[in-house]
## 1
Amino acid sequence: MKRQSIIFVTVLIAALAITSYLFYPKPTGKSKLKIYCAGSLLYPLERLAVDYMATNPNVELEIEGHGSIQVIRHVTELEDNVDILMVADYSLIPLMMYNTTVKETDEKYSNWYIRFSGNNIVLAYTNQSKYSSEINSDNWYNILNRNDVKIGIANPQIDALGYRSIITLQLAEYYYNKSSIFENLFGNNFEPIFESVKLPNSTVIFVPETQTPLNNKVSLRASSIQIVPLLQTGAVDYCFLYSSNAKQYDLNYLELPDEINLGNPQMDTIYNSVEVRFLHYRFGTISLDREGKTIYYGLTIPSNAKNIIEAKKFIIYLLEGNGKTLFDSLWHPIYHPSYTDKIDNIPNELVNFVISEP
C-alpha cells in the first residue's frame, strides 16, 4: 500500500484482533467524514480519498476497515458515530440495523441501503506457492489437500469473505461430485470441527463458538485484507479472495466456476443450497446465520451519523462522479443505477441514482 503525501495509513490491532486501517489527515478544523468499510474496499477507497480531498479541500476523510460484521457492530453495539457504512454483504444492513435502536431512543440505526456493487470468489496464490505450476480448475482442491500446502481464510464469525469461502468449499463438493472437500480442506482442521450436515436438498455448516487449529493447515484472520500479507510473505500458499482484491494486489489467481464462485445471480438456486449457522454469536443477540447467495456490496448512512450532508455528497461522488470512475478502473465496478430495497426511505439527494430492486 503506497503512502500518499496527504494521507497517513495507520494499522491498528483492536481488542478483538480486527485490523483497522485509518486515513488521518493532519487536523485542520475541516469537516470530517468518517467511513467504516469492509476490508476488501480499502484499496480503492485509499485512492479515491486522495482525489476526493483534492477536489473537496474543506473535507477530511477518515476511513477504517474491518470485517463486514464488525463494521456494523461498531455502530450498533460499540456506539461509534460513523457517517457512512460500506459492507461486502448488503443483507447485513437490514439484519443488524433495521430493528436495532439507537441508545436511549426509538430510532432505528437505518431503514434503507444501496446495493452498489458485486464481486466473486477466486483462489489466489503467488509464484512461490507450492505446486503453483500445477494447479488448475480441475485439480485445485486436490492440490490444497496436500499435506505441505497451507491455506488462508477470513474468519466466518466476523468477515463476509469468511463465511462465503466455506460456502464455496461446500459448493465445490456438489460441482466436482467429490465428497469431503469441505471437511478435508477446512472443517476437520479445527477443534471443535466445523460440522457439515447433509440434508436431502441442502447442506448446513455449523460454526463453533471458538476455533482452535489442530495444525498449521489453515490460518484464520479477522478480515479479508489481513490474508493478503500472509500470501505475499509465503505464510500461506493459497487463499480465497474477492477477484477485485486479487487484481488490485497483483496476485495470481484461479477463476472458479460460476456454480461455486458466488458471482452469478443466475446460480442463486445452487448457492442457496448451503447455509452457515453460528452456534453462538458472541457480538450480540441477533442471529447471523447466512445462506449462500450472490455477492453484493451495500452502503447506508447510520441515523446517528454526525456529518449527513457530506455523507450524501460522497455517495453521489461514488455512484456517479469520479469515485465511480476510479472504482471501475480498479476492478470494482459500481452499478449504474444502483439498487435499493426501500426507495421511499432513500434521502432525496440520492433518489436519482438508485432504482428499486426487482
## 2
Amino acid sequence: MAYNANKDLKLYYSIGEVAAMFDVNESLLRFWEKEFPIIKPKKNAKGTRQYRKEDLDNIRLIYHLVKEKGMTLPGARQKLKDNKEQTIKTFDVITRLQEIKEELLTIKRELDVI
C-alpha cells in the first residue's frame, strides 16, 4: 500500500487518486463509503467525491482491518464501533514498527555493502 499521510499535501483527492493510493477499485471505495459511516467524502455540486486527509486515514484503517488482517466487513465495522480509539492506536503502533523495520533493513543493507 503506497499511502503515507505524512507525504500528502493536498486538501482534497479525487476518487481515482484515492483508489490508486490504496491499489483498489473506485467501486470498492464507493462500497466502503456505504458500509462504514466514518468515510464521508465531500461532494461538489456535480456529486464528485472529494476526499480529505481524515477520509484517507479512515480508509487506511479500514484497508488494514479488511485487506491486511482479513477481517470481514461486519467484523471491521463492529471493531470500529466498539473501540475505534484503541484500534487506531494499535494500528499506529504497527505502522510505526513497520517503518522502523524498513529503516533498520536499509541500514543493514548499507552496512553489508561496506
## 3
Amino acid sequence: MTRNRALARRGEAWAARYLQQRGYRVLARNVHTPYGEIDIVARHQGQFVFVEVKTRTTRGFGWPEDAVTARKLAHMQAAAEHYLAEHDPEGRYPWRLEVIALYWPRPDRPPQVRHWTDVTPD
C-alpha cells in the first residue's frame, strides 16, 4: 500500500469514528460504484449520508477540501444515486452528501477537522 493510500485509509477510519461519536451509524466504507468510490456511507437523522474524506499532512497542495471539486461532487452524487438504486430502490429515505477534511501534520496528535454537511455539486 502506498504512503498516500495508507494516509487516506487512516483518515477514513478516523472520520468514521468521528461520525459515530456524533450519532451517525456507519453502514459501509470504501463502497465501489461505476462512478467512483464512496468513502463512508452512513445513516443520520433518518437520512442516508455519503461522505467524502480528504486527508493531508501538509498544505503544499492547499487545504484537504480544495481537492473536492465540483466534478468530484458530481461523481459523488452519481455514486450515491447508484448506491440508493440498490439499497433504497423505493426512495423511502432522503439523503445528502458531506465532506470531512482532515489536516493531520502530526500523526501523534488529532487532526484539524472541517466537516461540511448537505454539500451540493453546484
